[in-house]
Every structure is written in C-alpha cells, then in structure tokens.
Amino acid sequence: MTTSIGRDTQSAIYRNGAIGRAPLVPAAWPALEEMARREMSREAWAYVAGSAGTERTADSNLEAFDRRRIVPRMLRDVSTRDLSINLFGKHYSSPVIAAPVGVLELVHKDADLGIARAASALGIPYVASNQASIRMEDVFAATPGSPHWFQLYWSSSDELVESLVSRAENSGAEAIVITLDTHTLGWRPRDLDAAYLPFAHGMGIAQYTSDPVFQRLVADRVAAAPPRAKAPITSASVRTLVDMTRSYPGRFGANLRSPLPRAAVETFLEVFSKSSLTWENLAFVRSRTTLPILLKGIQHPDDAELALAYGADGIIVSNHGGRQLDGAIASLDALPAIVRRVAGRAPVLFDSGIRSGSDVLIALALGAAAVLIGRPWIYGLVIAGAAGAEAVLRNIIAEFDLALALSGNTSVSELATTTIWRKDTHG
C-alpha cells in the first residue's frame, strides 16, 4: 500500500496553523512528556513514567538509539513508498503496533477503549493488556474489524490462563503475546515512594473480574474467609475502599456492602504471577489455542532459540521499557544478536525505547519485523483521549514515512540493506 502519510500529516498541521489551530499534541518528545506530566496525578505519573531501580535500563534504551546513526543514500526514486508489513498471514498498514499497557483508567476515562479506537483509526494492531481497565470483549466489540492482539500474564492458576486465552480467541484476537519478564514485580522506587500500587485499589483487573474462573476463585475465597477484624478507619483506607468499590463490576452501592471487591483484589494479588514458570509450561497454552504465540521479554539469543524450540511463533525483544530489571541490557543492543540467531525462522519484533519515526527505522534496519510503542501513546491519551493517542501514533508513523524516504528507501523490506553507524564501534 503506497503512502503519503508523512507529507499529509505535515500539511494538515501547517494548514491548521495558518488558521490559528494548534496541534492536538506536541510533536517533540520532551514537550509531549511534559504536557502529559502536568495532566497526571502524582501516583499516575510515578506508575507510567517510572522504571526499575535507578532507572538505568530505561536510560540505556534511549542511549542505545542515541549511539546509532542512519547513513542515508541519495538519488534514488523514493516518490512512492509502502510502509506495510505481513505478520502471521495478516497484512498491516505499517510496522507500528500499540503495545499493551495496563491500568489506563489512571490516565484517562476512555482507558483501553481510547487506545483501541486510536489504533483502529490507523489500521494498526492494538495489544490488549491483561491488566486492562475494560474487559477485552467490550474493547474488541467497540472496534470491529480492527486488528487486536491479547497480552497474557501467566497466572498461578492454569485454569485462569486457559480461560483468558480462550476468551481472547473467541473475541477475535489475532495473536497471543505472553509477557515473560513480570513473574514478579520489579523494584520501582517511584511507586514505592508514593506507597501506591493501583492493583491494590482494584484498578487494572477488569480482565479478571469479568472472568468466570476468577469469579469462582473470589467466591471460594469469600466462602472460606473467617470473620474480618475491623481495620482502623483512615482517609487512605476510605479512599482505597472507594477505589475498589468503583472498579468492581456492578452498582456502587451494592458493591460497597459486598465483600467481593476486596476479595477480588486479594485474589488477584495472590494469583497474578507464576515465578515457577519454565519453558515446558509453554506447551499448555500452545495446545489450547490456534493463534500465533509471541514471547515478549526475550533479551538473550539462547532464549530466542529456546522460544522457537518450545513452539513460539514470534519473539518480542523487550526489557519492559526498563520497568522490571535495573541494569539490564538495552533492547536495541540485544536485537541484532537475536535476529542473527533466529535467522528468519520466525518474526522478531522490538519493544522498549521507541520515541520517534527515526527510532522505528533504526530498529527495523537492525532486523526487527515490527515495533511496539507504549509510553508515547499513553501521553497522547492523557492529553486528549483517543484523539490524542491517535495523533501521537500518527506523528510517529508520519515521521517514519519521511525518514524512509530521506534514507533512500521505499519499503520496510529495503531497510535490511540500510547502513546503521554505531558510535561506540566507529570512534
């Protein structure tokens, strides 16, 4: 599919400027981040912008891009360009995918519906988070005909895992993304300093509270629970109770008198993750879905090899945007060796650190089949809901289109021959 999204997006912004209409969101990353920060609560900013430990991994993701430079070629006919890619038998309009992000109710009332509508407007896949604020069935139904994927956090209850995967497939998901690097939460000082975990307030667990297996686990917990001692009443405890009550399905008044909201939070915190997971466990999901399975969080070539050996259809090189392991290798630094090891046997996707269209080009030139983007569209969602998320993603795709042309290329496939200069190896 030929494109002029770069030129068209630029032209629309300049035409609107001529009649006094400012862009919906800033095009420059620092301005976008700062505008979003001003709109967010302290807790929301800590959760979204924060990373693990000293945040060296998050910094290294950006520094890895900064060390690389595109070497453009001249006097090539780039007047017609095609951004489209094919993945798992599906055709997508660009190599950009909206990454899974949880607890979106923290940043905007539209939450998951906002990013789903933004991705739908652009014709790109949206990976629905396992930690969504709105259940997948409602989100997918609101954007019919659009490409949806589903991200799975492997619960300690295999029955719940099976139920979530089945619901995703029945709802029309085109792929399952299993996130491997969050079997326990990383050490996140910004959240710890705020003493705030949104899940403890009942946020980001809509996929669970809407699931029949989880509902049974909650009911069993309530039935088996001894009488609860009265806790001290503080402003914080009242706020937490209100948050849990509001987030739980049903009427607020009825929920306020019910033990279910609190029991749901306690059950979630108990079953969220499974640190005993091994490669052999992947056969469980592989045998329960016909959808392509991608493993997200791969950083080592040997793990990429194991992923293929144990039935993965694709790999996502990711360090969770720096949110899990402080001091981990930058995803971009990990990418080339994994691409070499996989050697075309499966698509290798990239996640962590994309902030611009040129970043997209660099990752693709280093071998990625597609890229996942998270924080940028979150900031757009904060600023202007679905329209803001769409504007941010459109800007990145538009810049990628122009970068493709300016580097002397006309398609994603041509980027395999593009020279990427690396500062620390060239002096």
What does this molecule look like?
This protein has 427 residues and is of the alpha/beta class. The protein has two domains: 2-190 and 274-426, Aldolase class I (TIM Barrel); 202-271, no CATH class. Helix content is 47%, strand content 12%. The protein has 19 helices and 14 strands. The chain has helices spanning 5-18, 29-39, 42-49, 56-66, 111-122, 136-142, 158-171, 189-194, 206-209, 212-224, 235-247, 252-257, 260-271, 282-286, 301-309, 331-342, 357-365, 375-406, 423-426, and strands at residues 2-3, 68-71, 81-82, 85-87, 90-92, 96-98, 126-128, 148-153, 176-179, 293-298, 314-317, 348-351, 371-373, 419-422. The protein has an eight-stranded parallel sheet. A two-stranded antiparallel sheet has the order 1-3. Strand 4 and strand 5 form a beta hairpin.
Structural key phrases:
427 residues, alpha/beta, TIM Barrel, 2 domains, eight-stranded parallel β-sheet, two-stranded antiparallel ribbon, 14 strands, globular
What's the main sheet like? 8 strands, parallel
Structural class: alpha/beta
Provide the residue-averaged pLDDT.
95
Low-confidence stretches: none
Proportion of strand residues: 5-15%
